[in-house]
Amino acid sequence: MFRLASRCRKQACISLIRLYSATNPQELAIKSTNGQRISSAEYLQKVKDQTEGAKGIPIEQFQPSRAAFDVLAAEYDALREECNELNDKYKRALAETENVRRRGQKQVEDAKVFAIQSFCKDLLEVADVLNLALDSVKKEDLEKDPQLKNLYDGIDMTSTVLQKTFARHGLKKVSPEGEKFDPNLHDAVFQVPKEASEHAPGHIAEVMKIGYYLHERPIRPAQVGVVKK
């Protein structure tokens, strides 16, 4: 009988707590005066302190009012929205960081590959001079003059070794005769009448100076003659 009466008094007390709980949103704010969110335990204690008749109730048995739950629900929605925004910003920042890393890695790789580009351009002049020297010698003169033949063979061997060295470092020559003219890859120095060439109009009829590529990147356009359209 005593236990039943005690339980009834307890339920009545809880009902009284719910009835007289604070309803002012300012009083139930989940943030402190400096704008920082308080912990759940601090909030529960705050609600209990502001609830009439709840001072004698243990914190474990205290049941907050609906107004207090509404504040928590609103705070939950705000935190959820904030979390979604921060998560979206994090993903965007992560993607941007990855893009920056990839661009940086690509730039480093390109710097390694194309670091010799200026040096290669200077050596191309040497290759051009060797080719001019070889082209200037007539075949019949080689047969008549053994010394000229030896000199010619030496220059030819030098040119061959130089081209092999170019190829080993990714530098290759391009002679685009018969290909369609591309202003991004070729340098037109003259035009050829349509009837004087076997190639179609707009195509390259003659190559005056061969072009060079360094790892598929053109570093010197070929100087060509283009068939008139």
TrEMBL record:
UniProt keyword list: Chaperone, Coiled coil, Mitochondrion, Transit peptide
Coiled coil: 69-107
InterPro entries reported for this sequence: GrpE, GrpE_CC, GrpE_head
Task of the protein: Essential component of the PAM complex, a complex required for the translocation of transit peptide-containing proteins from the inner membrane into the mitochondrial matrix in an ATP-dependent manner. Seems to control the nucleotide-dependent binding of mitochondrial HSP70 to substrate proteins.
Signal peptide: none
UniProt GO MF annotations: adenyl-nucleotide exchange factor activity; protein homodimerization activity; protein-folding chaperone binding; unfolded protein binding
Cellular compartments per GO CC: PAM complex, Tim23 associated import motor
Entry's family note: Belongs to the GrpE family.
Identification of the protein by name: GrpE protein homolog
Gene Ontology biological process terms in this record: protein folding; protein import into mitochondrial matrix
Subcellular location: Mitochondrion matrix
Superkingdom field: Eukaryota
HAMAP family: GrpE
